[in-house]
Design goal:
about 400 residues; 8-stranded parallel beta sheet; 6-stranded antiparallel beta sheet; 9 helices
């Protein structure tokens, strides 16, 4: 990927054309799921899909092709039959330059589904090694090992699954952060931490799906919620983001206020999500695509089992972090081009805070990564006897990035 992957789930069947790729561009997407391609799709519909792929290629958007012939069902019991189905889908679309890979399936939940999804993933890798299959797993929750995974730990399950399925991307979805109260926030960060730790052990790339539409008990995310989700997921080590979802197909259950409603109209969520994606990609997309994450800790309050920052212990250069009104923060350490970077994120989706990163005077310089991706002097760098204080106000979910040179 030349750009940080940000995409979305797409459940439309026949409603979209190449003209709709303009929505994806305006939303700041660098990835997209194609519309659903049914097994019985005729040549006219396949032509529409190819036109969509052409428009995506022109817009530099990579596409996960959602062709039902590529779904995992029956792949372990009838591998030859599955391979024939996948080859037909690949011949129709797989050689297009916009294609990232094919969708293998969503949320395997039992032994049969795990076996089928692994077998299908293997066939796709062996048949089209230039592509990256996309298989989405359930969110992690405590106790899943015994009930779903049949392993002693999530990491053990990942260590078995990555070589078995030849996974390149380890993706899941998690929406509990949009539930009322803090229990869901703890579960969200536990999911991110567990996913990243398992990825570190196996070398697979961790992705997650975030929420852009209200439903069930999940609230309708506002702009602060969207930004907070994206920022916290990225600094927690996610290397790809998908949004659930963009298009409301019809008014059903209690789904509400997606970016594009059932009438095809852009909602306020569209503008919020567009700004969230575009601001991130413009300022930080290249950095997080290339930088090596070293460590992530929480400040003020630790969620989901993350390490709590300890003054004078967590790092020998960053001595302390203070925030106004005790607003929680996240601190992540990176290396890029031989330089040390520290990202600090306001870990509140509702409160603004002035955040101060206390940096040892042993350093040569402290600079800030600005909106135009330039390293500039810190606007408010306060000097004390033994330290510098890099100070700035953060709105909810805002990232600030400092470069520390020795």
């Amino acid at each position: 990927m030349k750009r940080f992957p940000i995409g979305f789930w797409n459940y439309t069947t026949g409603q979209l054309s190449a003209r709709d790729v303009r929505d994806w561009v305006d939303l700041g997407m660098t990835m997209a799921n194609s519309p659903e391609i049914m097994v019985e799709a005729d040549d006219a519909y396949k032509t529409v899909i190819r036109e969509i792929l052409d428009a995506c290629d022109e817009a530099d958007i990579k596409v996960i092709v959602c062709d039902r012939r590529a779904l995992w069902h029956g792949a372990s019991d009838d591998p030859d039959g599955y391979k024939a189905r996948f080859l037909a889908a690949y011949e129709d679309f797989g050689r297009h330059p916009a294609v990232f890979g094919f969708h293998v399936g969503d949320e395997p939940w039992d032994d049969q589904a795990f076996a089928d999804s692994a077998a299908a993933h293997r066939v796709q890798i062996e048949t089209a090694p230039e592509l990256t299959p996309f298989l989405n797993y359930l969110p992690y929750w405590s106790g899943q090992e015994e009930t779903i995974l049949k392993a002693s730990s999530f990491t053990e399950w990942v260590e078995k699954t990555v070589p078995e399925a030849k996974l390149r991307v380890l993706s899941n979805d998690c929406y509990c952060q949009m539930n009322p109260g803090e229990e869901g926030v703890h579960a969200y960060f536990r999911n991110l931490r567990t996913l990243r730790e398992a990825a570190d052990q196996t070398g697979v790339s961790p992705w997650t799906t975030l929420l852009s539409v209200g439903h069930f008990k999940y609230r309708c995310p506002n702009e602060n919620d969207l930004r907070w989700q994206l920022s916290t997921a990225v600094v927690s080590g996610m290397e790809g983001i998908m949004w659930f979802f963009v298009y409301e197909r019809e008014c059903r259950i209690n789904y509400r206020l997606p970016p594009i409603d059932a009438f095809g109209e852009r909602t306020e969520t569209f503008n919020w999500l567009a700004r969230t994606n575009k601001y991130f990609l413009h300022q930080f997309g290249d950095f997080f695509l290339r930088a090596k994450r070293i460590k992530t800790v929480h400040v003020g309050k630790a969620y989901g089992g993350y390490e709590l920052f300890e003054t004078g212990k967590t790092d020998d250069v960053v001595l302390d972090v203070t925030t106004s009104d005790n607003v929680p923060a996240i601190l992540s350490f990176y290396e890029l081009d031989g330089k040390k970077y520290v990202a600090i994120v306001n870990n509140s989706a509702t409160e603004d805070s002035e955040m101060q990163v206390h940096i040892s005077k042993s350093v040569k310089s402290v600079r800030q990564w600005n909106f135009h991706r330039q390293l500039i002097p810190v606007r408010d760098l306060r000097e004390q006897e033994d330290r510098y204080l890099a100070c700035d106000w953060h709105f909810p979910g805002q990232i600030k990035l400092y470069c520390i040179e020795f």
